User: What shape does this take?
Amino acid sequence: MNESTKGSTLHAVLLWGVPLAAVLAGLTVWALGGRYVETDNAYVKADLVPIYPEIEAQVTEVLVDENSRVEAGQVLLKLDPESAEIDVRRAEARLVAVREQLAAARKQLEQRNDERALAEEQIRYSSRELERQRELVAALMVPASRFDAAEHEAMQAKGRLRVIEQGIAELRVRLGPALEGRPEAHPSVMEARADLEVARLKLRRAVIVAPESGRVVKLPERGVMARRGASLLILVRSENLWVEANFKETQLGLLRSGQPVSIHIDSYPDAQWRGHIDTISPASGAEFAMLPPQNASGNWVKVVQRVPVRIAIDDGPQGLPLRAGTSAVVEVDHSAGNRFTRLVGRL
Assistant: This one.
């Protein structure tokens, strides 16, 4: 190839090849440059399960170590059961007392029924006596006071019967289902039995077990007093980890649920996890703060807000444990590369 041919080829390359390569490079950067949305305001999150005691007692045993992994149902702590045991015995005694009260009421009802039979017999006798005295008074054989006394006795017998029948009605109401041979269905027995079950439940709650699998933190020391309403320890669930990324509000227009996400954890700079956008918060993070911003005040400065985006973790390197609260960098592919396809289609 002579010098003139070489010069023509170089001239053609410089004239057409270099500009074409520059145009292709520019199109590639333009097409892919806006495809990803990135933020380093992201953190690994996990479900934190505070464990509260249901009885107030001292911690007698701590059976796990700080930060150790536990399985669902594993015993974590034991509390002093003495107070709960006393409550169980008290509830058992109350249940026995209620059953004995029903048995005594049943006997009392039988006694009242016997009294009613005697009262009815007394009424029949006083009625016959009243008729005899009426006839004797009419025959002027006895004074009228005898008739008055017999009439008074008959009225008293009827009054005693009414009182006895009222007592019987009251006892029948008190006995309720026990009249039909079902004392266990009586409300008082059911209530006492429920109290006993609650007392036994509290006794079982003196042994605190893990409700889920995970790691335990902030364990109490032996001898600490467990109080209702105050957590004894926290369980960090090892499953269902996710990443919470706080994107600027100006980036939200590009984000949709289901978009793929690349995740880099600061603890493992050379590793990468894959995930997808799960949900986008309906409000900015400032709205959930203890003291939300008062934008209606006079001294107002516009600040770009950030909105939490929950990113589900699909897969990643094995053997690299993720820890809640660690920092991350996320990169969302919102399929902006389709701009190049649309451009080619127009051309």
Remarks:
- Residues 336-347 have pLDDT under 50 and may be disordered.
- The two ends are 38 Å apart (CA to CA).
- Residues 84-192 form one domain.
- Residues 102 and 175 are 6 Å apart (CA to CA).
